[in-house]
Amino acid sequence: MITIVRFTLGVLCAAGVLFWLRFLAAVVKETRGRQPGLVKAYYFAKFIPSQRRGEIIVMNPDAVKPKSPVKVGKRMALVLGAVLGLAVSLQSQQSTSAADSSGSVPAAADNRQVPQQVLQELDAMKKRIAQLENELRQHADAQQPDTVADTARATAPLSSAATTGSMAVVSESSASPATPEKKQKPDPFAFADFTWLNGNARTKTPAFDSKFFTPEIRADVDYIWDMNNPKDDTIGGSSEVFRSKEVQLTQLGVGGDFHYDNVQARLMTQFGMYSQTTPRNDASPARGQWNLDNAYRYVSEAYGGYHFNALDGVNVQAGIFMSYVGLFSYYNFDNWAYQPSYVSSNTPWFFNGMRVQIFPNEHLKIEPWLINGWQSYGRFNNRLGIGGQILWRPNGWFSFVGNQYALGADALNVPGRIRYHTDDSIQVKYYDNPGAFISKAAFSLTGDLGCEHGGGVSCAGNSAQGPKQSFIGFMAYNRLWFHKDLYGFTLGGGEINNPGRYLVLLPPINGATAATGTPYFTENPGDPYKAWDMSGTFDYMPSQYVTFRWEFNHRAANVPYFSGSGGVTPPGGNNGNPAAKVPGWSPDLVKDENRFNIALLVKF
Question: N or C terminus: which one in the chain shows less Cβ crowding within 10 Å?
């Protein structure tokens, strides 16, 4: 038994000596070739007797005071001498105990006492090491590294000590201090949550994102019951609803945003009813060749651009982009109501051209446009249109947007007729209490003015230059959110007066389009048109990515305009010539309509 104990102690002593020789060799290797003035601090931590392992921790040279090499060498020699002395003492005590007692009970107790003393000393060393680690952490926190990389270097020794039981030497960091990173400017309008706005998607986080691409998927499916019960199920006078008593896919859009190295691109497709109904309201493809309406019908947005790091950001983009004249978004998921009022439904949803988005600060956007025309794939005549947008959000509860358009020659084959239009909206969130039954409340107010002059019409009124050709309208909505925004309820409506009918959506009588026209609903200079509407909308929003919507609409006009029970399709279907009358038949047009809308709206 005594022989086994002696052998064990001898092995421990030899291991201790070998360990410190390895330690000294590591120190010499690390300090060899160092520049003057770079000082390291080493200490031994977390020794595990059973595994004969431990760690040498190299403290960050910026976090400790430099010590002279002489003092460092003396301390190492003292530690090494203490270990050798301890080993010799243990060997001597073991030999004396064996000679005096020859295996007696007191000798056995002494043999047990020696390892206990060693463990006590090791325990004291562990406590001291833990104290040093804590001091090192506090000192590192006080230094407050400037960059993420500096923080990682400062805490790397502590992380290693906590996660591994093997010996590790940490390389010293660069002697030069880290250069502070330039403070990043906040993204425009990122200072508050604007998902409450009408015309803005309420999704707060994308379902998926990457450095290169942020995908987007939209689905809009509806069921409309027109109480006029048109026998051909055709609804007219709207840019959002088109068929009665049928489940229809209004839009399926797949695309997203591409962004890399300041280069931008966006694509959003449109399949479903929008791919047919939106192009038919654009008369510009009738001028020239290449079937522009077919080329673009499956695209709602498609543009490329570049971001310049000037001011708070400058984007230059060209292609097809949303106009947002009339406040409401082209995508019903983003809106407070499914059927917007005439001011929105009768004004452009897209522009084809170029825009420059200028952000002087995080509260303001100035966006000039150079575009083909008023919601047109091509030019109507011989000139482009110009316009722009000013968007101002001084805080999280107020938003102002103004859209302006000018100098567009947007009457097909009438080059001297020039259009002007202004569209301005405010939105106010006047109540916000997430914990209450009514969690939010907001309202929007929009006003539009416009006119055309030249080519036989006048802005000022009926005169020698021609009859009055103008547009005036407004719409207002109030929305309440309930039960932590799970439910929403919106009341609103509006009114327009558009003599000349140049912005009135043409009913699809006998397959008529904006290019063909129809003899059953003329758009001659001075033709009167006044209309008003109101709606109530209830939303159930169990997820930020889906909305279940129920809505009632009442719409009215001063002239027969909406589909009646007889419909707007000739017997046997369209005859192929919508610009001519069908002998013995007339469409059934009425002055008002009432509708119930049910919709499922999805956006990822």
Answer: N
